[in-house]
Amino acid sequence: MWDYSETVKEHFYNPRNAGAVAEANAVGDVGSISCGDALRLTLKVEPDTEVILDAGFQTFGCGSAIASSSALTEMVKGKTLDEALTITNQDIADFLGGLPPEKMHCSVMGREALQAAIANYRGEEWEDDHEEGALVCKCFAIDEVMIRDTIKANNLSSIEDVTNYTKAGGGCSSCHEGIEKILSEEMAARGETFVPGAVGKKKEGVVKLKSPKPEAAPVVAAAKGKLTTVQRIRVIEEVLEGLRPALKADGGDVELIDVDGKNIYVNLVGACSGCQMAAMTLGGVQQKLIETLGEFVKVVPHSERPVAIEGV
Amino acid sequence: MADIYLDNNATTMVDPDVVAAVMPFFSEQFGNPSSLHNFGNKVGFALKQARQSVQNLLGAEHESEIIFTSCGTESDSTAILSALKAYPERKEIITTVVEHPAILNLCDNLASEGYTVHKLKVDSKGRLDLDEYARLLSDKVAVVSVMWANNESGTLFPVEKMAEMAEAADVLFHTDAVQAVGKIPMNLQDTSIHMLSLSGHKLHAPKGVGVLYLKRGVRFRPLLRGGHQERGRRAGTENTIGIVGLGKACELALQHMEYENTTVAALRDRLQAGILAAVPHAFVTGDPSNRLPNTLNIAFEYIEGEAILLLLNKQGIAASSGSACTSGSLEPSHVMKAMGIPYTAAHGTVRFSLSRYNTAEEIERVIEAVPPIVAQLRKLSPYWGANGPIENPEQAFAPVYA
Q1: Which of A59, A89, A121 is the last residue of a domain?
Q2: For B6, which of A76, B30, B176, B222 is 20 to 30 Å away at the CA?
Q3: ipTM for this prediction
Q4: Which residues does the annotation say bind Fe cation (chain A) (predicted)?
Q5: A306/chain B closest Cα distance in angstroms
Q6: Above 80 in pLDDT, residue B256?
């Protein structure tokens, strides 16, 4: 059985705002393909102030889907539509005291129902912009669609690449067989053959959860006549600045702490910090930095920096 | 009130007599059965006795046809991989769409290695089409593997007949009988079944022990090679505790065979009648006229199984479900899908599986508990109106899926 928090259980056993709201003027019907759950959210919005006066849900789904729906209705009541739109799926999960990785999609469904209902109220067409697949990496909650898309977009050809770009496979490594299978298929589709790394060489280049050894002094850019350290840091700051609006939209932010060779140390703050999706966020930041700098870099949470090189 | 355990197809309680039988093997009876001295010799004798008990329950002709393994999955893998090794020129496997993952995932993996896997389809009651099967049998087939009883619906398959058909076509026949052994009588010496898998913990033995039945004379290639244990067919020091426990459990299963097929079956029928009488829009899945005596699988339409299980669990009732959410997988049960059960019902399937330890009082308590739980969840369902399902539920509620 799932390891549900007490709050999840409480909202499942005693759901708030179950049923459709009378005189609703906003309806959002969404479903999660990954488990077959579906949710109808009905809102009663005060037209002048756009304040949500009442919210109700009807859910076909499991315990955490019902709890997420219940939590969502509690969270949106009394908020204006614009305020409500700032609620992220992580906020829903946090409100419930966390959800198991396999169940995070329940909170995503909640957020999407809210977006759909508000679009409905405003007479807009809501389009879903994300697709979910089977969970591959349980350590970092990365699904198949994400891995496949990243492999396609970046022509990846090794497990190390996949881990560097998405973080998938960077934890317990049990999913490496699954990642290899996806890699083989995607590489075959572009006319290449997957070649496994040498035995024992595998771990090189993988973003370590806890870096074991300090890296050698940076020999990268300057030696190759590319960017000076100052220039590099400037480029990195620019990239982070560009990503900031997206992070802020989710209630978080990123801050550059240090650059040490190919290791870039950052702090995730706000909603990003401690978020189960932090790894994905870091993966996204890293991908952008690799593209812009044209070299391989690792983005490492400052908290995971080895003590030995602190302050170097 | 004590909790009610109706999830015996998942695993069973170790019978107290089995516990008593294995206790000495944790302490004074620690010898290695292969050793010559008294310490080992006594244990060796206990294994022989256990082997005979398994032989009796299966109706096997020879005790040497019993190979102890670590679990049902190991027996399944050993059987299929052995057939492929023994007949390397044969590259086809016949199985069914409703097998346990122990067979299906192995076959899918073999398919990726170049084998052709034919999966027999089932009809809406979970029954196979034997004409389709007959057409597929050929000298290209290395092995047929068909479960004796389905773990979710309890539906029984005509494995004895299918084994004869296989033998007539000169093809090996294996059955995953993990759910059937101990619940229905069998006499393997009268059948053409060449290999059979069973698992101890499904019949009140401890976990970690299984058996591969291998008919004498059937070509065999071991999965584990090494020592001479199990006559060189499954190397590795014997799990004496598990094996002794399984022997005792088989003895008890044989004693209770009639009880299982009369009293337990009657309790199951009472549970089915009681629930269906009180809950509208619910139906039995599988083939009710031909299923295990202990298994009842009901689809509750328009609600989801995990939610039902959580509410049952709150009242101390243990069952299981074919909903996607209970497994963390993408799809609702492959068995329900294969039978063409509509999506809004497949997610709401609940399996009640009984054992000889269940009582009539327990069954009445479950019959009391289920209807309000279903009603409570339907009240939350977008497919359900004030007094029943909304009109054209699939059209009236058509969410955007992502």
Answers
A1: A121
A2: B176
A3: 0.84
A4: 35, 62, 106
A5: 35
A6: yes
